Amino acid sequence: MNNNSLSKWEKPILLIYISLYLIISISMVLKQPLGNPPDETNRYRIPLYIYEHHALPNGYDEEIRIPGYGFSYGFQPILPYMMQGGAMIVASVFTNSSTALVYVARFVNCFLGLLMAVFVWKLSKKWFKNATARYLFSFLVMFLPQSIFLHTYVNTESCAMLSSAMILYGITCCLEDDFSYKSSVLLSAGVILCALSYYNAYGYILGAMILFVAWAFRGSRKNNVSFDKAGFLKKGGFICLLVLLGIAWWFIRSAIIYDGDFLGLKARALCGEMYEDRALLSLLVPAFKEQGLSVFDMLFNSDFFIVTITSFICAFGPMTVITSIWVYRFFKAVFFGGILLFAFMPAKVVKAYYEGYTIDRRPVISLFYRLNLIMCAAIPVILSITYSYKTDYQPQGRYIMPALIPLCYFTVAGIKKGVALLTLLLSKAFKKEDDTVFCNRLVTIICSVLTVGIAVCLIISIYVYAFPQWETFEDLLF
Q1: 287/144 Cα distance (integer angstroms)
Q2: DSSP assignments along 181-217, one per residue
Q3: Three-state SS for 478?
Q4: Whose CA is closest to 323, among 333, 334, 312?
Q5: Would you say 201 and 164 are in contact if contact means Cβ atoms under 8 Å apart?
Q6: CA 317/CA 36 separation, integer angstroms
Q7: CA nearest 179: which of 187, 168, 190?
Q8: CA-to-CA distance for 43 and 38, rounded, in angstroms?
Q9: What whole-number distance in Å separates Cα of residue 466 and Cα of residue 30?
Q10: How far is 136 from 368, CA to CA, in rounded Å?
C-alpha cells in the first residue's frame, strides 16, 4: 500500500491544501449573516439552549421548536450542537457578545472540516498511487463549493461528513491490518460521530458492518471458504463495545423521555402535529404523494434533479446565492465524465496503463469494497427522494452530500481510466509497446489542470459571487 511519508513535492501541496481550506472557510464563517445559511436560525437554537441552561434540551422544549412547523431538531442526535454549546460556554468566560458566540459555534464546524480535510488526504494516499490523482481527489472532495460551505455555519452535516471520511479511512486500515486495535479504535470513533450527528449518513455504518462480516470469511475459492468465528467475535466485540459506550447514552435517553422512541422520529412527528401552525402550513405546496402523484412524476416531471444537482455543486445561503454557469458546467463535466468512464470503460482494456485500488491480501474484497461505496452514495440519494416525495418537497444538494466521497473516488478513478485509454490509443498510433512513463505524465498534467480548476472555481464562487450578496453580519442577528 501507499507510504504515509510525504515527498518533497507533497509538502508544499499539502500546505496549500490546508491553507486554502482555512482561508476560505474562516472568511465564510465571518462574512455570512446569521439566518442566511439554510435553517441556521433554527439549528442555532439548540447550542444556544445548551449555552444558556447548561443542559440538553428535550425535543418538545418551546425554546428550540421551529415556528410554524412545530417540531425541533432536538429529537435527532445533537452531538455537534453539544460541541458548539460547550464551546460557547467556554468562550463566555471571555465574552458575552452574541456575535462572538455565533462565531464560536460556527468555528466548531470549521475545525471539524479541517479534521475532515486531513482524513480525506490520508484516504487519498490509500486509494491512489499517483500523487496528482491524490491531489485531485482531495481538492474535489473538500473544495466543491457546497462541500466547504457545510463547514461554515451551524449544522450537523459537517460532523457527518467528517465521520464518513473517518469511517472509510478506518475500514480501509482495518482491512489492511486485520482489524488491529489501533485501526478499530479509529473506525469506532468514526461510527460514533456518524451515529450522533446525521441519519442520512448512516449508510457508512451499514457499509462498515457489511465489510467487517465479509472480512471474517476466509479463503478465495468457493469450496475453500471458512468463517473466522473467533476473530469475528473478538474484534467485532471490541468495536461494538467502543461504539456502544459512545452512543448508547443518547438512544437510551431518547427511549426514556420519548416513551420508547429511541430514534425520536415518532416523537418529532407528534410534536409537529401538536404545535404546528396549520394556517401557515396550508399555504405550502403539498408533497407529491399527497397530490396523488407517483414518484416518477416527481423525478421526471419536476425540477428535482436539476435543483438537486445544481445545489450539490453550489447554492449558498437559503439556496439563493449561486455562482457562474461555467462553474456548474466545469463540475458537471468532471463528475459525469469521470463516472461514465469508470462505469463503462472495462479495466481490462486499459490494464497496461491503469491500476485501480486493491487490497493486496484478497482482491475480491476490493470489488465488495466498491459495491459498498456505491451503496453509501445511493442511500442518501434514496432518502432525499423519499423525503421530498412523501413529506416535504425539498430537492437540496446538501441532503445527498454524504455521497460526495464515493462520487469523488469513482470520478478520479474514471479520469485515470480515460487517461489510460488515451495513452493506449496513442501508443498504438505511434507503435510504442510500453508508454507507462508517458501515461503517468499525462495523468499528472490532466489532474494538475483539474485541481487548479477546482481551486479557481471555488475562489470565484466565494469571493466574486457570494461575498457581494451577503449583508453585514450584525444586521441579521436575532
Answers
A1: 30
A2: HHHHHHHHHHHHHHHTT-GGGTHHHHHHHHHHHHHHE
A3: coil
A4: 312
A5: yes
A6: 5
A7: 187
A8: 9
A9: 13
A10: 24
Strand partners, 321: 316
Per-residue pLDDT of the chain (478 residues; tens, 9 = 90+): 344 556 677 788 999 999 999 999 999 999 998 778 888 999 999 999 999 999 999 999 999 999 888 999 999 999 999 999 999 999 999 998 998 999 999 999 999 999 999 999 999 999 998 889 999 999 999 999 999 999 999 999 999 999 999 999 999 999 989 999 999 999 999 999 999 999 999 999 999 999 999 888 876 555 677 888 999 999 999 999 999 999 999 999 999 999 999 999 999 999 999 998 877 666 677 788 888 888 999 998 899 999 999 999 999 988 889 999 999 999 999 999 999 999 987 777 666 556 666 664 566 777 788 899 999 999 999 999 999 999 888 899 999 999 999 999 999 999 988 888 888 787 776 666 567 777 778 888 999 999 999 999 999 999 999 998 886 444 444 3
Specify the residue for cell string 401557515.
280
